[in-house]
Amino acid sequence: MKVFFALAALVALAAAKHGGYHGDQEIVPDLFEGQREYVYNYRSLVATGLPRQSQRYSGLEKYGVLNVQVNEQQGNTKILGLRLRHVMSGSFDKEVEDIENRRIEGVSHSVEETIEKYGPVFVKIQDNEVQKLQAPENMPEEVINIYRGIAAIFTVGKPQTLEGDDHPFMPQEQRYGGEQQPIVYRRQEEGITGNFETIYEIFSNPEQYNQQLNLTKTRNYMKQMGPDGRMLQNGHDRRGCQNVCPTHKPEQLDKNMQPELSDWMKPTAEGCPVNFHPKTDLVEAFTTYNYNMTVEGQGKFALIHEAQALDKKILPLRKQQIKTVSLIKLQLIEVHPVTEQWNKQQATKSYDEITYRFPEGHQYDLQYLSLYNKGDTAEVLKDQIIPMIKALAQVIVSENIELKGQTGDKIVQLTMALGSLPKPELRSLWQVLGETATEKSATELQKVQRKVLIDTIGLSGSNNATELLLDLIMEQKLTTLETVDTLQTFQQNLVKPSMKVMQQLKSIVTDGKFQEKRTILGAASIAFAEIVRTNCATRTHKNTLHHQQQLHLSSQPGFRCGEEEYKQFVEAIRGQLHSAKNFAQLTIYIQTLGRLAHPKAVEALTPYVYGEQEVIGQLRQMHKDGSEDDSEYVQFIRQVAIYALHPAAQKHGAAVQPIVQGIYFDKQQDYELRIAALSVLLATQPTEATFGRIVLELGQEQDLEVASYAYSALNHLANSTLPCMQRTARRVQNVLGGLPDQTFGTHHSKWGSKTLYHHLTNLGMKGQWEVTQSNVSAIPRAAYFSITGNKGPFVSTVAEVSMITKGLENLYNFIHHKGGMTQIVENVMQRIRRDTRHAVGDQSVEQVLQQIEQAMQFNTEENNEEPRAVVSGSFLGNELYLPIDKEYMTKVGQKVGQQIVQLLSKEGADKTYHYVRILMPRTYVHVAPAVNGLPVVLSNRHPIVVSLSLKDLQTRFGAEKGQMKLNPFALAVSGLIKPTVYHTSIHSALTINPLQNTRYAHGVRAIEQTYVTLPIDASVQYTHQTKTLAFTLRPRFETVFFHKTRAMTFKTEALLIRGVEKPLLERYTVVKTQQKPFIFDRTLGKKLGMSIRVQGMSENEDYAVNFMKHQESFKRNPIASLIKQLSNEWFVPRAWTVRVEQNQQWPAQEMKMVIRLGKGLFQQRAQHQNGQQQQQEQQQRLTQEQLQKEQAHPEHMRMIAYEQEFEKITGRKPQTQELQQSLKQIAQKTEKFWSQVDRELSQQLQEQNTQVRSVEYILSAKGEKKSVNIHGHIIVAALPSKQARLAELKMKVDQKPISLEVQAVSAYTKTPQPFETEIREQEQRGILGFVAQLETRSTGKQQYTGKVEMNKSEEQKKLMTAPKEQKPWYYAQCEEDKKEQKSEMSTACEKVRVQKSALNKLRFEIELPQNIHQRLVNASHQIRETLKVRLYRNLRANYVAQQRSQENKIEGELVYSEQYPEMRMANLTIRTPDHEELRFERIALPKALRPSTMWTLKQQVKAALKLDRPEPVCVYNGQNLRTFDNVTVSLKNMKEGEKYIIARDNRQKPLFTILGEKKQAGQKSEIEIVLRDATLLKLTPPAQQNGAVYKVRVNSSSIEVQPKKTEVHQYGPKSKHMITLHVEEHKEGQDTLVIKVRDQRMRIVYDGKNLKIENGKQMLKGKLTGLCGDMNNQHIEELTGPEGCNYEREEDFVRSFALSKENHGLQGKWMCPEGVQPRSASSQDIQMHQQNKQMRQEYMQQRYQQRQNYRDQQEHMTQKTKMIPLNGKICFSTEPVTACQSGRRELETEMQSVEFVCLNQSHERTKQLQREVQTQKIASDLPYPGKSGLVHHEVEIPTRCGH
After folding, report:
1. Among residues 312, 332, 357, which one ends one of the domains?
2. How far apart (Å, rounded) are the C-alpha atoms in residues 478 and 451?
3. Which stretch, 904-913, 1366-1375, 1496-1505, has highest mean pLDDT?
4. End of a domain among 340, 357, 374?
5. What is the DSSP string of 91-147?
6. What is the pTM of this model?
């Protein structure tokens, strides 16, 4: 059978080549016979509805008669006359069962006179394809569009090949048994929606069905040529990857036919193909034409008996859909000869295509507004706009929640009306509402009206509106904030900006008026770049659609932005960049060039990316004073320039990739530059080979920051789920197997992303973050975070924040330096500066400092970088770019000073501020013509109002005469701050009948209204004298959240703007699915005096119940369940409100909290020792004189004291107690717990050895009926060794009465010796215990006690006695390190100590009183049942416990297991008083969390996050030293008796310096510590082995540090400059001396030989020097000496820090900063070094020259489509090839194989392509490379051009 059909196909093919049927019949003959007239019944329909929610539709239906007259005929060309008669029109809004096939019943129709009063329309058809349309001169476009829809039906194209020859039909292979298969072919065909690919399927032909010809044609909206009739408004960002690929493929299509048009792809595991036709619109559109014809006249013509055009447009609304159906149906009534020839002479209006056109007289940038009834004149519109703006401003200012939902419709109406006004009318609006609001007497309402006018004009998107705002900016009539907001609005809301608008924006960017205003300049530059890049996109063959649209726009007046204009804009910014005068201009213009994303922009940025000599010279001209290091500045600018390539990475990846690849793979480059290059490289979607090279080189990567960044990036990319990233993910997965197994902590640089994608709705979310850590600061060098949302083909940036920094860690020094911000603010306030700190002139300190100064010089310049940063942010498409440096901070300081002066000038006076911003992000407006010629307007709008009001603001800054007001004795602030957001989401599909005098809109509207506010009416008071802080909150009882969702069908007059009092919709019907919605009503917090009431109505039962308990999906994924319910995927009607209500039984009117912070015991001791004890260290009360003066101020502005506030609230004085007494009482009450661990703790828990802190508080709620007071205190105490910690909480509620008193303790045995591995594991244990006393009115006094005993588990005990082979690897490695005298700094030995100090067995018990409060009973049962449910798979229950617990006691046991190294496992056993035993086995727990005598829980968490030690540690043992960055250095060349610098803060005024001196061949060590060049601590070994007394010399005095007593000293002028010294006792080994420098977070441990330095202050990162290194988290360049020289050999490095003056010479190579030499270098060493340096400079100069030559050559070259004759045809290269520019000649060439497509010379398409190549250099709409049917040919291509 297959053979039979194959033969039949060949016969048909041969027949077709010779004329086919009867020798001359075509498969699709010409339509209609000459000199005949055909009469058809005509029906058309446009209807919109929500099919997944209701069958209700709203729309228009027309009936009439269509006369078709064959006017002329010449060969296969005919002139058809078309005329509609007796047209009846009617509208409907009702339930319809079958919208497509049946006439809608009950619709009242009226005569449509507009169509009939005009003459016929004539259509020229050639080969059944419309070539021209002619209409009467006075016929409006609205009527012509009706005829365009009819003309599209009469386009029934014939098969056609690429070359233009007739092509026979070709049946597919058999699929339906013995039946003949449909004939399928493709054409590029005109229609009312534009020129799209059209697929024809012939289901019956004359050969089969006796003259019957039935066919269907379908429009492929993914392939378009030329312009269309749509209006697409901006608002969506297409910079991201598009996630929609073609998912349907015509099954009957033969891939061998017309291969250049068969680019249909299905998504595969590789994601979308490289070259695919993306879905270009949010709307899903399907258009099908069905024909029932007969072939007559012996096959010479075809007669249409019935034809139907059906179009469906789907506007996605999450999972819901707004569906629009349009159709034309023609049924033949009769055929008769022409009796009266229609006069063609009157049809003088001619069109070459039948694409839909907007009505005449519209604005070119906002065409769709011409569909609406605008009103009589612009003056009338203006009279409606002014009341609307005033009404919108009144809604924003008012407090009425009922009005808030109206903001969205008002904003939409305003933007549409303002967009249609001419510029003079807009100017008059500004004069009425804008200029008057600048006066001092302007009210809050007038100021809001001004801001509303500015924002809505900007959102309108028209050129007139934009020109007005740009004029106001140039005239400087807008404030800085208004200017920035306006420029941000332009970034996405300009529809079709004219060249005049772009030139005005360019003037702002380049005008000297704004170049010193960096905030405005940054916003203007981004707006300019985005507008130019979007509207002047580079024309390439891969962007045919966009290019054709630009050509269409270019034909319109005022819009001429093409490739040449694009280049001119780039050159203008390039010129500004080269002439930039300061840092701000330089970085802004770099960013602007990057945003322009043009090859010429990339070329302009290349010198800045490489940091070439011209850039260095430019930077030096900016800073002629030489105050900044050139290398650091150049490096920063290079980093900024590299990141600026991001926008061009996707569009011009081929140009960007070589640049960033060279930087990343060059390991001589700085790590931050390599990371920046890798970030850009990943954005270009590299090839698998590139990823493979990255993986291969990671194995040898020495830089930890680069390695960490690359590792995290590859792992996250491999797990991407977005379709557009699947190809990249697959490439990474293919090479990931070669990645070495390494992990990096969170303190290293990272690249990460999280993606979610829903295939059904084509919705996706992506979160991405990048962090480049600094090696000299805790502040990252670069950081980036973004959230993007994908909806169909569009990518919208929800939020984006990025920063690039340099030297910000020095900003603090700048602020306190002369000329810094503090000085600026004080000068403005006319106050004196604070006195500088007096140096301590101790002789012993001076001797050490002189010795250091004479021995060496420190290179501190590297740590004195100028603070600079560039910060950019984007929210909902509004971007801001801001460079920050000292100059900017100075100006900010001046502004801050002025604002403070303004606040202080009116102390106590009420002040009001109100900021308003109107946004409309992600706007989508699409006019998609229906098949019958009526417009269908599909839109998504999201108007948002952001309001921040500050009312009744009162301030007080009390200061004594001559005292600086920045440090007041009294501070008070009070006011009402109210942030509010109104968000309206409006989704609509409507059709407008433009044929009527009064136009009406019919459609569907879905709307979501959301209102959120958080009013805070509060006051804050602080009094320095009493150290008392008070916070008062006055509740606001109002609605804080409102949300409403509904959908409706409607009919209303199509007006741009309606009267303020008129409803937006005249007639509408809300779409509902049921009559009785589900109700949710819940009140929370009734007993707090104010409650939160949540009310809601929903059509979905799931949304009205408590989803936290009843949703199965919540149990699986709580966050996903919450998002699902909040997003309302099916757009179910609902209404929700959240209101703060007053409790009527106990109405709270004011809530107040008063806190007093007490000084710790150690701080008190330090002050007493330094003679700072005062008669009254802290005044507890205010004097009567002060109280009398304070009466002049309002109550919330007065000075306060805790004791007096307590007495005022409670009516009695507070009970106060000294901290020493409190410590003693807590220790006594918890003694039964800590004594079980270590009885010697009783000697340590004394006031001289324990740090104690306290907080006293009182909370009160006042009301009309009663008040509630809660008061008490919190005390926290801890030993310096953290061996024991105590806490006490007291709370009392006076009115209940309720009192609670809790004492708690945690205690462990002595910590293991930090330098020894021998630990008595059996004796280690810990305990956690508490005693709680609760007293209530119902239960009386009750006591609860509980304890957790921590011991070794059986598994640990077995490990102690196990053979070495069965122990973890680090036990054996530690033994090896001991032999090499490295055990003190060995990582393996440290792991042994951590392992041995762990306590894996926890036994707990809780004793309960006889009478337990019912709430506690309920809570305990709830916890138990929750454990059973959550850990059901781990549960082993025994309801008759073998070990019965005592009555009123809960017992249990938790045992950790280390059998699974990847995850910590635990077994949990619980025995309850009701004799139930629950055993949960193998519970997975975080690996870091378990009790330990060595590390606290906080330290374990830090270690787990960093995958390293909790803090950087340097260890010295006399023989070896381990640096902060974990590099071990041998000290065998360290001389005995000679001092070496172990660690030092590398600043001009160092915070500390630590020196070490080896004694007794390294068995002893002496240590000296210099703090702030003022205090010297000298540590000497203890007199006896295992001694516990250390003699420490502090400057000129000597102290003995003994166990169980902590020495406290203040080493500087401030109280924070405090050090503590104590002796930690250990079970094994030497007791250690521990010194803590509190303000520097430094801990020093010393045992006479070994020294350990822990530094937790991240701001010192990279700023240290000495043998311990620089603490920059890097292993490389660790051997850096004091001068900044990097040494190759360890002995040179060690000697460089010796304080001796001996010159030992250098043993290895070295590298120093410019102008610096090692002190031990000989003249021969220096000469050789200079030669090597000269060679490097010559090499760099050679590389620079090569890049310069390459750029010069590229300037002479261009790209063009190669056109050659071949075998009688004209061939065009499918890809543009390199060619010399005009006026340049070829200097060098090479032969290349190029892919060509060849066409017949006589074909129209060939001539069109020839004209394009000759005029525009590049041909459009050529096949993509790699397709079958193309030819390859060797041609000569230039590689170098010149004069």
Report:
1. 357
2. 10
3. 1366-1375
4. 357
5. EEEEE-S-TTTSPPTT---EE-HHHHTS--EEEEEETTEEEEEEE-TT--HHHHHHH
6. 0.86
